[in-house]
Design brief:
Length: 258
């Protein structure tokens, strides 16, 4: 067993060695910061864990810059106006020391704007029956010759709001007109939802969904509001209402219904 005085001496020696190594590492870091920017990437921004010299002379105080997962190739670069007043004492910064720029990234969506595209539709007359056939716009089968209509992206927004968001027809049109500056009507919203339903039916969506549900080991589907705690009373007579029978079917992995 090591005596207490020997253990204290070993701990003191270890602490001195660690302190000496830390001082050597700090001196090396300061020298690197004074001769270059070893922690900077191609974009000139310090990488995570890199150091930056804050003074004008080599050997000045070094500040560690926290890393930030910014986009290395932003869509555009802008430069803010020069600061005119100190953020602490509000003194003027006209004669202040000029330092290297810092950076920040703002992620947003572009301002929505409806784009109108005019398609030229080649026509051909059939040499057999004389019928004139015009070309169709790709992915917009409802765009007929001599008409103006909305495209599939606005239609997708209608389906997203109307079906997934459970937004009524009139309010769906109101939201779209407010977001995109369009002038869609409730009739357009209803027709778009109908087109989506017809497209799903043409691809066998209902049968595929039924087959997928039948393959599930446990299936329960019921959204009816049924009072199971007590019988409802008729407001006029005060007697229990007749009501209608309800059945909740729960299919389990075992034969039979519960």
């Amino acid at each position: 067993v090591m005596p207490a005085w020997a253990m204290a001496r070993c701990l003191r020696r270890t602490r001195l060695e660690v302190s000496r190594d830390c001082r050597a590492l700090r001196v090396t870091t300061i020298r690197q910061a004074g001769t270059g920017r070893p922690g900077a990437g191609r974009s000139g921004r310090p990488r995570s864990g890199s150091v930056r010299r804050t003074g004008s002379r080599a050997g000045s105080r070094v500040t560690r810059v926290p890393g930030c997962p910014g986009d290395p190739a932003p869509d555009r670069r802008l430069r803010a106006d020069e600061p005119t007043g100190c953020s602490s004492c509000e003194a003027g910064l006209a004669g202040g020391q000029v330092l290297a720029d810092m950076w920040t990234q703002v992620r947003d969506v572009p301002e929505p704007r409806v784009e109108t595209t005019e398609w030229a539709l080649p026509r051909r007359r059939c040499g057999c029956c004389g019928k004139i056939t015009a070309a169709r716009v790709p992915d917009v089968p409802w765009a007929t010759a001599g008409s103006v209509c909305y495209g599939p992206l606005i239609g997708g927004a209608v389906v997203l709001l109307g079906n997934e968001g459970n937004v009524p027809l009139a309010r769906t049109a109101l939201v779209l007109n407010g977001m995109y500056g369009t002038a869609v009507s409730t009739g357009f919203v209803a027709r778009t939802l109908q087109r989506a339903a017809e497209a799903l039916a043409a691809r066998g969506y209902d049968e595929k969904m039924k087959a997928a549900l039948r393959a599930e080991p446990v299936l329960c589907g019921d959204e009816s509001l049924v009072n199971v705690l007590r019988r409802d009373l008729d407001e006029a007579t005060g007697r229990p209402t007749e009501g209608a029978p309800h059945l909740l079917a729960l299919r389990t992995p075992w034969p039979g219904l519960v």
